[in-house]
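User: Can you recover a sequence for this backbone? Please restate the input before giving your answer.

Assistant: Of course. Working from this structure:
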């Protein structure tokens, strides 16, 4: 399912996400959104059907439960600084998709904007380098970001890969206290087990060989059940959290990663090299 637009249900969800932890009355939502109390009630009912855990208390209103962890554009935006580079990034959210990178490449070819981000709850055809399978069950974060070459300040392509790896490591460390490290070209590890894979692809104009766009694919094992992974992977992968035990939400981590990825246009080569030494193994 693709989540986009400004439907009433999206507006209500955005208000709940922005008020996470606090109750918002039906009257306050109706007044703020310019719609009826009945429309608010219907939107809340539909959100509950979609799986959102929403507390309803007489004379207080509604609030999202703390254990709610459904990926949504509204949830991601609630954690993005309105002054950040990616504040206007287009977010496309899928329950399931073959590959976020393939969708991002399709959109980039059609002229999607710099910073456009595709996120999925799971992938049916996730890929790593050399078309290796990237197992992508529910519980993970699978996201791809479109970058334009004129926003990239680096003289060598390898610096893009290094910058993205550093950005994911820093975001995870800042938000969870867990400190991943980079091993090989594009894999992130914790305690000698893989936690994240990164796949960067690009498109060029055939006649001039001019780089047209870059797609950054990131897959993070947030809280999947490792027992559901293929047997041959269970001893070499891990997750940030056990299922349902995350100390942050997926939306918060996605927002943090997206903000750092989009900050690439302000990066410089020397800072990448200096920061890389902290996370390289």
């Amino acid at each position: 399912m693709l989540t986009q637009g400004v439907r009433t249900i999206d507006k209500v969800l955005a208000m709940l996400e922005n008020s996470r932890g606090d109750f918002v009355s039906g009257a306050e939502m109706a007044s703020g959104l310019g719609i009826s109390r009945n429309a608010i009630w219907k939107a809340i009912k539909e959100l509950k059907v979609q799986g959102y855990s929403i507390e309803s208390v007489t004379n207080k209103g509604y609030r999202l439960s703390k254990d709610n962890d459904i990926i949504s554009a509204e949830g991601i935006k609630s954690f993005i600084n309105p002054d950040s580079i990616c504040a206007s990034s287009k977010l496309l959210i899928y329950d399931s998709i073959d590959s976020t990178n393939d969708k991002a490449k399709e959109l980039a070819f059609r002229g999607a904007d710099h910073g456009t981000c595709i996120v999925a709850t799971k992938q049916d055809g996730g890929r790593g380098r050399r078309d290796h399978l990237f197992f992508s069950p529910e519980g993970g974060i699978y996201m791809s970001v479109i970058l334009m070459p004129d926003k990239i300040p680096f003289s060598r392509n390898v610096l893009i890969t290094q910058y993205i790896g550093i950005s994911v490591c820093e975001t995870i460390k800042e938000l969870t206290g867990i400190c991943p490290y980079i091993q090989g070209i594009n894999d992130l590890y914790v305690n000698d087990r893989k936690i994240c894979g990164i796949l960067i692809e690009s498109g060029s104009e055939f006649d001039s060989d001019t780089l047209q766009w870059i797609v950054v694919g990131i897959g993070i094992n947030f809280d999947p059940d490792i027992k559901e992974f293929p047997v041959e992977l269970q001893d070499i992968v891990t997750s940030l959290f056990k299922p349902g035990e995350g100390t942050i939400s997926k939306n918060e981590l996605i927002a943090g990663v997206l903000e750092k990825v989009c900050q690439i246009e302000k990066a410089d080569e020397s800072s990448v090299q200096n920061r890389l030494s902290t996370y390289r193994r």
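That completes the design. Residues 1-5 have pLDDT under 50 and may be disordered.
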